[in-house]
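Lab notes, practical 5.
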Amino acid sequence: MAYVNNYTPPPPAPAVLPESELYGPEPYDINFAYPIHAPTLESASLKLVPFVPAVHGAAYWAAVSPALASTFRYYPALLPTLADTLAFVERAVRQNPHATLFAALDKTRADAAHPEWAGALAGIAGLFNTAPANLATELGFVVVFPAFRGTHVAKHMVGVLLRYVLELPGARVPGLGFRRVVWSAHPENAASIGLAERMGFRREGLLRWVWVLDDAVRETGEEAREDAFKGKRGRDSVVLSVCWDDWEGGVRERVREVLDK
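Output from the prediction step:
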């Protein structure tokens, strides 16, 4: 049987988005394929709301830019400017209906510049690599701003997201009813792995050579052979997960205890 292969690669995306596109449409469409259950995404001390570039972008950048290199040391790439960050949010998040990004508001602190937030912007976190056919997603791009590290913020961010993803839609506090949530971390990022394990994630193993690294974070990777990405290092990822049976077998209670503090 004869066959042909007429694949034509798509044109490359422009290196820089025009400023008019960085902030998305007006009104802003988060374009997420799943319902946003606001009560599920809130604890007594923290609330997650959709990240809206025009609303949260400047405050996000003001918080992370002074410590950019250390904050993103163990990430596979470093977004060096606010424009790069917003381009990532537009292309990789908003235009993908199976990804979303949340802004974390610490309800225990006030922000005089933004009283309408009823809290201070403390970090961001999102859902990525969602596989709706398998009811699975990944909790990623978790960033806690330097001024909020060592507080309740990181644990509450993770806790409300686990509840949101794993609770069934018909629960008293409704969720998406997924079966699996993944957490990936650089093998040397003990803080990230420790946070995940404290919140009930179970270590599954190591994915080898899963990332080609941005040159800005190359020191955290290993040399690779000469290939299509000449000179770019790579890295492994530790993979952890919480699945529906973990959730119903004790992790729900662990998360509830954290959120009630």
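Observations recorded by the TA: The radius of gyration is 19 Å. The CA atoms of residues 129 and 137 lie 6 Å apart.
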